């Protein structure tokens, strides 16, 4: 057997298996992130006429992302990644009739967050992360290329629809609501019906104000870092590669209601040329 020819063929196979540059899309769930929900409605007015309650989530944030990688440099490779992740939660305003405290009107909230790719929907905590990574590849294996590395992360996180935010938005409308309810005569069905109709209209006004304020709220920006382990696989000649990464994040700023798990997995395919 000609061992020199075998070694040369193996080296050629390994060389053909990897590309100079690649671009791909991937599934990018985040693990361990939790959002604390509220166990009871919290007042947003001093007389407790209006209150808010929001839920939470526990575990996996669903996500997706895009990756660009460069294998041209000696010794090290470079990756640039952009990930979008989100967790949904329910939120509602509760309007209490001061003359009949057992009569409570719920106003479910839907909002649209500025700076995110999601339209108006149930409230979401959205995390967008841009990573620039330097990786050290293991290059003697054909077809597959394991690597380790780390780098910088740029975090953009949305806010959480909480008591403080809502109270600052609906203060004026709340006073109108109090006036309407105070004028109601509980013994007069017509007066009760009119107050309920006006209360629903004001509730929708509150809802719209919250939606408009959320759209203009913007995102919290912060810097952090990450470490990663990964693997890319590519057959010779075929310009398609598959990849998988595990990342652990260090640093970054999050709302007080969010307990970040700091872990993301990226599983994707891309064009490699």
Could you walk me through the main structural features you see in this protein, from its secondary elements to its overall organization?
- The protein has 273 residues and is of the alpha+beta class.
- The protein is built from four helices and 14 strands.
- It starts with a helix and ends with a strand.
- About 4% of the residues have low confidence.
List the helices and strands and how they pair.
Blueprint: H1 3-17, E1 21-27, E2 30-35, E3 42-43, E4 50-54, E5 57-70, E6 77-88, E7 91-97, E8 100-108, E9 124-137, E10 144-157, H2 163-169, H3 171-182, H4 189-217, E11 220-234, E12 240-251, E13 258-259, E14 263-272
Antiparallel strand pairs: 1-5, 1-14, 2-5, 2-13, 2-14, 3-4, 4-7, 5-6, 6-9, 7-8, 9-10, 10-11, 11-12, 12-14
Low-confidence stretches: 5-16
Helix content: 10-25%
Oligomeric form: single chain
Question: Residue-averaged pLDDT, rounded?
Answer: 82
What's the main sheet like? 10 strands, antiparallel
Distance separating the two termini = 34 Å
Count of distinct strands: 14
Shape: elongated
Count the DSSP helices: 4
In short:
With 273 residues, this protein is an alpha+beta fold. The protein has helices at residues 3-17, 163-169, 171-182, 189-217, and strands at residues 21-27, 30-35, 42-43, 50-54, 57-70, 77-88, 91-97, 100-108, 124-137, 144-157, 220-234, 240-251, 258-259, 263-272.
């Amino acid at each position: 057997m000609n061992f020199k020819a075998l070694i040369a063929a193996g080296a050629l196979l390994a060389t053909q298996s990897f590309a100079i540059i690649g671009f791909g899309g991937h599934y990018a769930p985040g693990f361990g992130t939790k959002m604390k929900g509220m166990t009871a409605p919290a007042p947003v007015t001093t007389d407790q006429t209006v209150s808010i309650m929001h839920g939470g989530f526990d575990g996996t944030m669903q996500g997706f992302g895009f990756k660009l990688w460069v294998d041209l440099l000696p010794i090290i490779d470079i990756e640039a990644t952009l990930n979008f992740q989100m967790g949904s939660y329910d939120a509602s305003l509760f309007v209490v009739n001061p003359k009949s405290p057992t009569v409570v009107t719920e106003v479910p909230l839907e909002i649209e967050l500025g700076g995110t790719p999601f339209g108006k929907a149930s409230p979401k905590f959205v995390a967008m992360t841009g990573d620039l990574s330097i990786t050290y590849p293991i290059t003697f294996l054909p077809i597959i290329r394991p690597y380790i590395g780390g780098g910088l992360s740029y975090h953009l996180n949305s806010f959480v629809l909480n008591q403080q935010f809502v109270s600052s938005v609906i203060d004026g409308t709340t006073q109108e609501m109090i006036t309407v309810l105070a004028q109601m005569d509980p013994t007069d069905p017509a007066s009760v019906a009119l107050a309920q109709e006006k209360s629903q209209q004001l509730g929708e006004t509150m809802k719209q104000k919250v939606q408009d304020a959320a759209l203009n709220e913007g995102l919290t920006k912060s810097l952090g870092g990450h470490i990663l382990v990964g693997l890319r696989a590519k057959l010779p000649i075929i310009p398609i590669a598959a990849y998988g990464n595990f990342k652990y994040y260090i640093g970054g700023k999050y709302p007080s209601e969010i307990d970040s798990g700091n872990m993301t997995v990226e599983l994707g395919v891309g064009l490699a040329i």
